[in-house]
Amino acid sequence: xxxxxxWLRNQLLSLNLQxxxxxxxxxxxxxxxxxxEGTLLVTRKExxxxxxxxxxxxxxxxxxxxxxxxxxxxxxxxxxxxENFFMFCENVGFEENHVTYAKYKEYMHKYKINSLVETENxxxxxxxxxxxxxxxxxxxxxxxxxxxxxxxxxxxxxxxTEKQIARQIDDYYYKHAEGIAFETIVAxxxxxxxxxxxxxxxxxxDIDVITIDMGCKVNGYxxxxxxxxxxxxxxxxxxxxxxxxxxxxxQVLKDMKENSxxxxxxxxxxxxxxxxxxxxxxxxxxxxxxxVHEGPVLSINSENFLKERMxxxxxxxxxxxxxxxxxxxxxxxxRKGACEPxxxxxxxxxxx
Amino acid sequence: xxxxxxWLRNQLLSLNLQxxxxxxxxxxxxxxxxxxEGTLLVTRKExxxxxxxxxxxxxxxxxxxxxxxxxxxxxxxxxxxxENFFMFCENVGFEENHVTYAKYKEYMHKYKINSLVETENxxxxxxxxxxxxxxxxxxxxxxxxxxxxxxxxxxxxxxxTEKQIARQIDDYYYKHAEGIAFETIVAxxxxxxxxxxxxxxxxxxDIDVITIDMGCKVNGYxxxxxxxxxxxxxxxxxxxxxxxxxxxxxQVLKDMKENSxxxxxxxxxxxxxxxxxxxxxxxxxxxxxxxVHEGPVLSINSENFLKERMxxxxxxxxxxxxxxxxxxxxxxxxRKGACEPxxxxxxxxxxx
Lengths: 352, 352
Known about the structure:
The structure is a homodimer. The first copy, chain A, is α+β, with helices and mostly antiparallel strands. In chain A, 34% of the residues lie in helices and 22% in strands. The A-B interface holds A 36, 52-55, 57-58, 75, 94, 96-104, 118, 163, 167, 170-171, 174, 193-197, 279, 281-282, 319, 321-322 and B 36, 52-55, 57-58, 75, 94, 96-104, 118, 163, 167, 170-171, 174, 193-197, 279, 281-282, 319, 321-322.
């Protein structure tokens, strides 16, 4: 059995759970490497993956004997089969943050379970700490993102649309990686004041501000980087905002290490923004891995402590409605006494 | 207030619900046209959309006074605000098929609700019947898909990879529509035996079978079409399978109309496949609209009756593991005495 499934079985044992239903597809990919619609059951004796005709062949190709996972086509299973999976199980775990209320009721009935027990993001919490293989994948995705940034800075010309630039980034990622980790953001001029702008038909002007938020996937693992760049010149009214965002982003890099308090770090950025009459309107960052957004959250609303081998983003931003916005973001690996930025593109003024 | 929100309010009245929490973003887009993370509350007196700083500006731009929707930034709301939204409400509806078990418990507490009531996919069921504007959008998406198919048939040459072809389709969709409705499938040779194959680096051979499953979005509405095409020649061992799939696909088109029984139609295809020692391993089709997969399901496992102005897919397929597969799919509009295929690309043998 692989190391991650073994870890899960040990966890269940220590929580007095005799089985678990895993439904979050990202958790299933994390534990088994399977990428298919279906449900993973950890029962007393077996690991079972229930899928359907569309995926059976593919799942069989992914797994080896070593995985010790039995694959069933749901069409071959009877009512009794479902009732037998968790026979003699007192407590069965489930993912209360993924399973809908309707599915929860269905599972109780279908599997004839007495007690479905909340597992409090147990697998997600484990996913926050990356192993060496996971770190290598994220590093690779970050490297490709740096290369893509260099490519795109040379590609952008006034007259191109935001959409066109975004598509070019996507093409690069499909060519040099597994594709995008999230919808690429290219937001220019007044559009850059929207943190989650969708690329539009707006054309790049001779003098312009462009915020680009981009990331790709390598073996399922994500990168995430944002830069605000300039066309023609850096307007005088943008400079102080850019410098303020950058100063804070760099201060956060200094503060991020094992045991840092994420609430405190976020609070310091928010305070500095407020001193200058701005506002940190979104979280300072988030964990990243198989999901582009995963634990921990770095914000003023919740207290978390960074741990070695977490990978998180550091992305302060200031947005002036209807005018412009600046955001600077790196993907960062946490180490004991310091952190290591994995995205390394320049943060000096980039003028095209 | 717009017609769809008015419909929802009437529904709530007839179900003795004094309010509802709408969380499914597709339902929110359907009801309000808002595309942003957030929660829609229908309270006794008001319609409320709660979002955060990233989306406030954009939501305000989407809405007009006529919509009668109040937008709140979640950061400005207190514990008491949440408790007051549903004050004096006996029963409040929620989406039990979308809300997680954890959120269900959180809502009870946060909104101080006595009775959260399941609404049994009420909004999804309404979404199955399309109005004229929705039909126009889907027609437009289908037309673009036909055009893209013609384009791609001329583009494909032996030596190209599946990935390269898929990216070309995606590019076409981003240029001529809002982009893809789902991950484009280009599956050639033995890969075509996997119904949900992911485009690979396999190169198209001089003699080859290629299944292409493609769809785009127009104003949020999806199209979905599959064709299996040939390079060089139609191999003799594929012909009988292709002909059998096509015969059934065309028979289904004749059978689809108001009040058709979807279970019966699917059963007839399955029976005909079995007579020939094959098997219908997936559903025959699905509703399509703002979601590429929505109600109703067309399969042998559940009985549904088609209604006028439903839009559904008709997609029988046969898959021979490790060798090849054939699937033929159209998006279809249901009318009273017949149906209207909205995707119109040829289903004769296409040989490149």
